[in-house]
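Slack export, channel: ligand-projects

TW: morning all. Re-posting the request from yesterday since it got buried. We need the structure predicted with the small molecule present, not the apo form. The ligand is coenzyme A; the SMILES is in the block with the sequence. No rush, but it would help planning for next week.
GE: picking it up
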Amino acid sequence: MSADLESILRPVDNPMPPFPAKHVTIASGEEMVIRQVTRDEIPDILPHVAPLIYVERDFYDVVAARVYSELLSYYRYRIQDAYVLVAQIDGELCAVVNGRMATPEVGMSLHTLAMRRGLRIGAHAFAAKMEYHMDIMGQQEVLIVAESPIGFRRWMIEYNLEKRFDVPHELGGVPSWALTKELFDRARATLVVGRRPVPEELLEKAHAAILPPSDPPTPPEDLLAATRSQYDSTGTALILQRWRQEGKV
Ligand SMILES: CC(C)(COP(=O)(O)OP(=O)(O)OC[C@H]1O[C@@H](n2cnc3c(N)ncnc32)[C@H](O)[C@@H]1OP(=O)(O)O)[C@@H](O)C(=O)NCCC(=O)NCCS
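GE: finished. pasting the full token output, ligand included:
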């Protein structure tokens, strides 16, 4: 590809302030670092997102496929004004969150992907992303959607988000919800936690390597266990899939 064409295809990013890393003590007592990653670190994250594309439970498949595409687009300069934050415990990758500065006033929340469950790791990572838009970028509101019922509970209900149904969101054109400054200020005391600066030793460990998630969501051994998310009460589609795998059809 000619250098000229690349200069047309490659969007020019607007300046964005960096997200200052923070650390959060999670329910297990472990210290989790939330920090912004650079483009160079994206290849270290993608292999841990890819397997989640095959996990139907809780819509990990849809979200992981989209996150993979967004991260790759970021790495290869095919998305504008985007950022990626990661949550790490002792270097281990625990969550990925990303978004975009849609305009100087409006933020676009893209995704939240928790790779260790049951500790509100995703909720903390999402809160850091909102903090980035509101406090660091100084935006007026953030447009948000949820692909999964857990996401809906975590964002729409816990933050009491406002409907912006006249605005189609970048994610599939579905109606948007909005976090306003006022809602964020109300949530601040309970949902937005963490401290700065991150102790040097913790930060060094996080920067040293993005280690694989120790207990990531995995597809069920028996595909029939996933019928819940297939809207197929008879499980027919999955029985056929299993037969195909076993070479019976
Ligand atoms: C939505 C999401 C980011 C929330 O992450 P989180 O805050 O760390 O929360 P978890 O997913 O661990 O847990 C959510 C609920 O399911 C329960 N849960 C689900 N699987 C669990 C597991 N393996 N172990 C323990 N609890 C589990 C938790 O108890 C929790 O219940 P609560 O809401 O009453 O606290 C995460 O579920 C996720 O990545 N989902 C897939 C992608 C997605 O939907 N992203 C959001 C749309 S953008």
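GE: first-pass observations. The longest helix spans residues 60-75. Strands lie at 22-25, 31-36, 82-89, 92-101, 106-114, 141-144, 162-168, 175-180.
TW: perfect, thank you
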